[in-house]
Amino acid sequence: xxxxxxxxxxxxxxxxxxxxxxxxxxxxxxxxxxxxxxxxxxxxxxxxxxxxxxxxxxxxxxxxxxxxxxxxxxxxxxxxxxxxxxxxxxxxxxxxxxxxxxxxxxxxxxxxxxxxxxxxxxxxxxxxxxxxxxxxxxxxxxxxxxxxxxxxxxxxxxxxxxxxxxxxxxxxxxxxxxxxxxxxxxxxxxxxxxxxxxxxxxxxxxxxxxxxxxxxxxxxxxxxxxxxxxxxxxxxxxxxxxxxxxxxxxxxxxxxxxxxxxxxxxxxxxxxxxxxxxxxxxxxxxxxxxxxxxxxxxxxxxxxxxxxxxxxxxxxxxxxxxxxxxxxxxxx
Length: 332
What we know:
two-stranded parallel ribbon, 9 strands, D-Maltodextrin-Binding Protein, domain 2, coiled coil, alpha/beta
């Protein structure tokens, strides 16, 4: 009996040791699982667990289940969660105002310019700045260009006057809405649907996939395909946690992230196209394609925002993006 009890205790100890060898990675985000970010997080989980041969277990927490917009960054910095994929607008609040480059209206004429900025020295230099905040930037994920929605048609700058428009916490986005005569309202992403339903706000700005997965077509009568701004994410990890991983495991996770990023960029455009068709099929929201001439009027109305933040974001970053846009336009 004593031998049996001793053997049981040893087996229990070995089991605990084996369990403790598995490294748990909590990955929290605030969007639905069927968005580009949600699907890419699933892909990273699959790849990370497979490539590490089970040495890591990735737990996903979508839809703000674990932490809301305003809470998640502090949770990452204290290692209560290991990986986040916050929108790029979130980093201004950390004192890294340079990231607000991505919030500037009409700064990226197309995704070729966007990816060249992200993957080149501008984007990679911005990720390196996260180290000072106890964060390592792993990748940029894409969610596409934003469009305006409201319960009245939005076709000219005058149509925005007096509208309470939801924004993320960003001084650039605040200035953008004010340039249109709208009233910016900072509201957590998970609360936007109810705020629209209860008429706390009148409108918002989102890529198509967010518009559909958050069911905003149920509470917004008009969607204008303005393509005026961009929503992207930085996949980030707690620096102490990341640097404490074995070198070989860190390399495996880096590869898993690279593959998940390629997958995410591939599906982002597809998801937005599919979401738009589903919104159109619901027949609850009138979709208006903003003609190029009207888009140019809107762009010129918001262009002073670029000058307003030239010194805050950095002339090198803004002018550098202009140069890249010119090179892409010239076919370089």
